[in-house]
């Protein structure tokens, strides 16, 4: 990281006074550092990752430069070894508050502002049925006996049912990893969103991802007003239940891998949504 800082000073991207830096928590492949001048009156973040991820992440921030929750890019290395952005205050340590209030903030200040890409060349389709099928197979291998075989079959039935309405005609540039682990909070307030893995999809995908990313208050009565507030899609209740079950199934997989203590709460929510599925898709309607 010191080499990168010296390079930025040499290129006059940052002044020589930026000699103070500390390592921040990064992802699997990323290295992240906070740099500042002597009195910390000006702070930047340097992020290193694979060239593909640096290019994608920097492009996402530049595309949505008008969204205050997102970092402002200051410099992108021409070889995409790293990029530099203005520091956002806050911590990813999430203290649970009102999920409805958090969803409203995310919708009003982020998701509602998503746009369609000028070109799809550098994006994957997040909800490509083939991709989703592979993710569900993997999730099943992780979840195993934590839910019953009937529920595993339900997920496959829902996936088959959804294929007919999943199309790539109207897609938006999504954050792609839109969970509380990538939200910044300060004094209980949402202050930023970081670390996108951009892709194309429906804004509802990111909304459901955020909704499921913490285990509390995963109720239909909270989700429905959020979806209505989003206002991008006209979706039937039965389709929303299907989409939520898929999102929750994948989240239970993530929970088992990274946050197993949350499993009991997720399983309570799972049973609630499976029961709602029997209401919107009664057996005699098949």
Describe it for me?
The chain contains 9 helices and 9 strands. It is an alpha+beta fold and 286 residues long. It has 2 domains: 85 residues, Phosphorylase Kinase, domain 1, CATH 3.30.200; 187 residues, Aminoglycoside 3'-phosphotransferase, Chain: A, domain 2. A 5-stranded antiparallel sheet has the order 1-2-3-5-4, covered by helices on one side. A two-stranded antiparallel ribbon has the order 6-9. A hairpin with a 6-residue loop joins strand 2 and strand 3. The longest helix has 22 residues. The model has no long low-confidence stretch (mean pLDDT 93). This is Aminoglycoside phosphotransferase domain-containing protein.
What characteristics describe this protein?
alpha+beta, 2 domains, five-stranded antiparallel β-sheet, 9 strands, 14% strand, elongated
What is the tally of helical segments? 9
- Read across the widest sheet, the strand sequence of neighbours is 1-2-3-5-4
What structural class do you assign from the helix and strand content?
alpha+beta
Low-confidence stretches are none
Query: What is the CATH T-level topology of the largest domain?
Result: Aminoglycoside 3'-phosphotransferase, Chain: A, domain 2
CATH architecture of the largest domain: Alpha-Beta Complex
Which strand-content bin applies to the residues? 5-15%
Mean pLDDT: 93
Order of helices and strands: HEEEHEEHHHEEEEHHHH
Radius of gyration: 20 Å
CATH homology superfamily of the largest domain: Aminoglycoside phosphotransferase (APH), C-terminal lobe
Number of E-state strands: 9
For the record, give the distance between the C-alpha atoms at the N and C termini, rounded to a whole number: 59 Å
